[in-house]
Amino acid sequence: MCAKKVTVLGSTGSIGTQALDVIEKNGYEVVGLSANSSVLELENQVRRFRPPFACMVDERAARALRDALRDTDTKVLAGVDGLCELAAREEADVVLNSVVGMVGLRPTLAAIGAGKPVALANKETLVAGGKLVTEAARAKRVPILPVDSEHSAIFQCLQDRHSARALKKVILTASGGPFFGRGREELEKVSIEDALNHPNWSMGAKITVDSATLMNKGLELIEAAWLFDKTPDEIEIVVHRESVIHSLVEFDDHSVLAQLGVPDMRIPIQYALTYPERLPSPVKELSLTNYPTLHFAKPDIETFTCLKTCIEAARRGGLAPCAISGANEEAVALFLDGKIGFLEIGELVRGAMNTVPRADVYSLEDVLQTDAQARAYVRAQAR
C-alpha cells in the first residue's frame, strides 16, 4: 500500500507539530506545509520532511523563507492565496487544517473544491462558514474528518450507520479550564499567565484563553451542530475535569456511548489521518485505575458568558456565529496584549453579536465582511 500523502496547514502550531509526529511514525509523506510567520520553525520542518510546497501567510516571512530554502527544491507560496493554492494541490490525499483563526476558512473551501478530504482542526471554518462548508462538502462528496478531541469522539461513536440514524443527543465534555468554580468577582483580576495555565491540555495561546472563557466549548457546540446535523438544543455540555471521556452520544433508546482515552491530541489526529483504519498509536494506553473518580458538572453560563453567547448565536443562526467568532479572535488578541481585562472578552463578543442583522442566506463575501465588521466593533469599543 502506498504511503498516504498529507498537506498540513498550520504545521508549526500545537496541532500541526503533533500531526507531523503522527505522520512520521506512520510513514506517511508530507507534500505541503504552512505557517503564518514562523520562518525558522517552518524551515526546519521543510528540511526534515522535504515537501514540494510550503507556504507562509505573512508575505515578508515568505520572502525570508525563500531565501533560507534556496538550496532545496521546495517551492514557497505566499499569502492567503498561496495557502488556498497549497490546500488545493493535487499531490495531497488529505489536507489537515490546523490553522488558527478565520484565515482557515478559505483554504478549507479550496481543499473541498479540489475534492480533498479535510481533517479539520480549524474551528472558525465551521463556526463562521458552516453552511457554505457543509454544502460544498456534500456537493463534492468530500468527508470532513474532525480532529478536535470532542468531535472525533462523537464521530467515532457514530461509525455504525444505524446508530447515526438513531442519534438523539450529543454530549460535549469540557475540562472547565483553569477557572472552574470561580465567580465573576474572582475573574476580574485574572492575569494572562493565569488564563494560559490549562490543567489538562497543551495548546496555543488563543485556544487556551478560549478554554479559560469557555468560548472554546461554545464554538465546539456550533461545530457539532454542523458536523452531526443537530440543533443547539440537541447538544448538551458537561464539565468533566479529568478530560478522559472526550464526548458522548445518546440514542433514541437512551443508550449512551462514550469515547475514552488519555488527554493526548495525537489520538484524534491519527484517527482523522488514518480513517477508516486504526493503526498502533504513539500514545500511552488509558488505565482506568489511574482515574478512580470521574467528575461531572453543569457549566456556569452566567459567569462564563462567552458560552452563553455562543449558544444564543447558534440558535439565531445566519451570520451571528461568524460575528462572535471574529469578535472573540480580536478580543483575545487584545487580552493577550494586555489591553483589555479577562471579563471584557465576553462583553465584547456579546456586543458584536447584537450588531448583526438576521441573514439565512449568505455568501463567502458576506461571511468575510461580517468577520471584518465584528473585529472593527471590538477595536472601537476597546479604545
From TrEMBL:
Taking the record's annotation, the residue ranges forming a coiled coil are none
Q: Does the keyword Iron apply?
A: no
Q: What are the DXP reductoisomerase C-terminal domain coordinates in residue numbering?
A: 260-376
| Protein name stated in the entry | 1-deoxy-D-xylulose 5-phosphate reductoisomerase
Quote the record's binding site residues for NADPH.
Answer: 12-15, 122, 124, 204
Instruction: Write down the species.
Output: Bittarella massiliensis
Q: Does the keyword NADP belong to this entry? A: yes
MF terms from GO for this chain are: 1-deoxy-D-xylulose-5-phosphate reductoisomerase activity; manganese ion binding; NADPH binding
Q: Which UniProt keywords apply?
A: Isoprene biosynthesis, Magnesium, Manganese, Metal-binding, NADP, Oxidoreductase
- What is catalysed by this protein? 2-C-methyl-D-erythritol 4-phosphate + NADP(+) = 1-deoxy-D-xylulose 5-phosphate + NADPH + H(+)
What this chain does, per the entry, is described as: Catalyzes the NADPH-dependent rearrangement and reduction of 1-deoxy-D-xylulose-5-phosphate (DXP) to 2-C-methyl-D-erythritol 4-phosphate (MEP).
InterPro entries registered for this protein in UniProt: DXP_reductoisomerase, DXP_reductoisomerase_C, DXP_reductoisomerase_N, DXPR_C, DXPR_C_sf, NAD(P)-bd_dom_sf
Span of domain 1-deoxy-D-xylulose 5-phosphate reductoisomerase C-terminal:
144-228
Gene Ontology biological process terms, A to Z: isopentenyl diphosphate biosynthetic process, methylerythritol 4-phosphate pathway involved in terpenoid biosynthetic process
- Name the enzyme group at the top EC level: oxidoreductase
- Residues annotated as binding 1-deoxy-D-xylulose 5-phosphate are 123, 149-150, 175, 198, 211, 216-217, 220
